[in-house]
Amino acid sequence: NSNRSTGPTGALHDSAFLRACRGEAVPHTPVWFMRQAGRSLPEYLKVREGIAMLDSCMMPELVKEITLQPVRRHQVDAAIYFSDIVVPLKAIGVDLDIKPGVGPVVANPIRDRAGLAQLRALEPDDVSYVTEAIGLLVAELGATPLIGFAGAPYTLASYLVEGGPSKNHENTKALMYGDPELWQELLDRLSGITAAFLKVQIEAGASAVQLFDSWVGALAPDDYRRSVMPASAKVFEAVAGYGVPRIHFGVGTGELLGLMGDAGADVVGVDWRVPLDEAARRVAPGKALQGNLDPTLLFAPEAVVRAKADEVLAAAKASGRGHIFNLGHGVLPSTDPDALTKLVAHVHERSAV
Ligand code: CP3
After folding, report:
1. 155 contacts: CB under 8 Å, gap ≥ 6
2. 8 A C-beta contact, residue 146 and residue 137
3. Among residues of the chain, what percentage have pLDDT more than 70?
4. Which atom of ligand 1 lies nearest, measured to the CA of 99?
5. CB atoms within 10 A of CB 24
6. Which residues make beta-bridge pairs with 323?
7. Tens of pLDDT, residues 176-222
8. Measured CA distances, 311 to 32, 106, 214, 307, 329 (Å)
């Protein structure tokens, strides 16, 4: 697993998405959506019928089909590998499940040193179905980039410590503040697992990776810098040598954008609360931006969606950064898929040079 400077070549290397990640000129602003595969699509609900979420993640042909569905339907500029942030934890034997309508639920939450024993290192063989599915996908996708992803140490820790989704993260923060040594050990193990999981995806052919620290916006900047940033930085450092763009995203992270970039991201994802030109003032020069239309806007009339999308494009232009158009968080399950298809076409048309 040497850090070969692989990286894609040819038409894939020159795709609008990868060019934008590198801050280069693009023929049009590339678009993809977080959670573009999944419950907003009837064709997804159909192929998932009777198959549990985590089981589906281990079925390479099914993963290939689900990953390709939004690319076919919406003409987005990148695919995101269909999986979940808890898949690598399941793969090393953590007793957890994804409960429909709830999210990841962990049988034995980690609250003390003994709990750490649940977290061994991840070996590529633990996730051979990921290598297989990505191989199938890159063969089919051709010049369309495939984004690999993983959960960041803080967000994974929040599920492991709380035992499931949580509004206030009280157990997680109690551990972080109350037993810094145990917290460091927990995050250290998670950064190793996450780095190994991203390496598997890159070596199988993913041409970019996104590190989801969805819930890290719960932290103040000083706590982030001290207690979380080093673990995320280790993940980015571990995959630095591959030459694939590294995207970093979280929700409610307006006060953390600069630090999240400094952790080692090439592209910083921004939610809808901070306009992209303002985000550019918070993120170190040279890094591209991704975002940031409010996902609930897709429930508004088409003319409103277009006007708001134009505002995002204008702010991105003013930022002077590479820009990948996305939502400020994932597609909501009840979104009308046609609204997404129309949004992609609109962004492509408006940004064409
Ligand atoms: O299209 C894509 O974006 C790829 C698929 C994807 C899933 N999960 C599939 C999924 C991605 C990128 C994720 C990441 C993920 N999972 C995150 C980070 C992204 C974010 O939204 O901030 C987080 C926090 C999770 C944890 C998780 N898994 C949640 C909160 C849920 C939703 C629970 C629910 O049912 O509302 C899941 C389950 C999940 N992961 C589903 C899908 C399609 C829904 C379950 C199903 O379809 O049966």
Report:
1. 85, 212, 213, 214, 215, 216, 250
2. yes
3. 98
4. 35
5. 12
6. 289
7. 999 999 999 999 999 999 999 999 999 999 999 999 999 999 999 99
8. 17, 41, 24, 6, 17
Q: Is the shortest distance between the CB of 330 and ligand 1 below 6 Å?
A: yes
Tell me, using a 6 A CB cutoff, whether residue 103 lines ligand 1.
yes
Q: What is the pLDDT of residue 103?
A: 96
Residue whose tokens read 């080692």: 264
Atom 4 of ligand 1: nearest residue by CA position: 82
Place of tokens 């037993």: 179
- ipTM score of the complex? 0.93
> Which residue, 343, 349, 350, is CA-closest to 303?
343
> Is 120 designated active site?
no
Whether residue 5 has pLDDT greater than 60:
no
Q: Answer yes or no: 19 catalytic.
A: no
Whole-angstrom Cα distance, residue 204 to residue 6? 11
pLDDT number for residue 353: 84
Output the CA–CA distances (angstroms, integers) from residue 4 to 238, 239, 240, 310, in the order listed.
12, 10, 10, 40
Extents of the domains making up the chain? 38-277
**Residue in 49, 84, 96 to alter for ligand 1 test, most ligand atoms within 8 A of Cβ:** 84
Nearest CA to ligand 1 atom 46: 53
Nearest ligand 1 atom, CA 67: 1
The CA–CA distances, whole Å, from 70 to 8, 80, 141, 251, 291 equal 22, 9, 12, 23, 18
> Ligand 1 in contact with 104 (CB < 6 A)?
yes
For residue 104, give the H/E element and its range: strand 103-106
Among the listed residues 19, 22, 35, 225, the single catalytic one is 35
Q: Ligand 1 pocket, 29 CB below 6 A?
A: no
Point out which residues pair with 227 in neighbouring strands: none
What burial class does residue 48 get, using C-beta atoms within 10 Å of its C-beta: 0-12 exposed, 13-18 middle, 19+ buried? Answer: middle
* Structure-derived torsion over alpha carbons of residues 84, 90, 94, 98, reported in degrees to the nearest 10: 50
CATH number of 38-277: 3.20.20.210
Which amino acid appears at position 274 of this protein?
V
Question: Which amino acid residue places its CA nearest to atom 27 of ligand 1?
Answer: 103
